[in-house]
Amino acid sequence: MQVGYLGLMKAINGFGPQVSTSELDGQCQQLLTLRFYGNLTQDEISRRLGVSQMQVSRLLRRTLDHLRGCLLPPPPGSPSASPGA
Question: Best label site of 5, 15, 17, 19, fewest CB within 10 Å?
Answer without folding.
Answer: 17
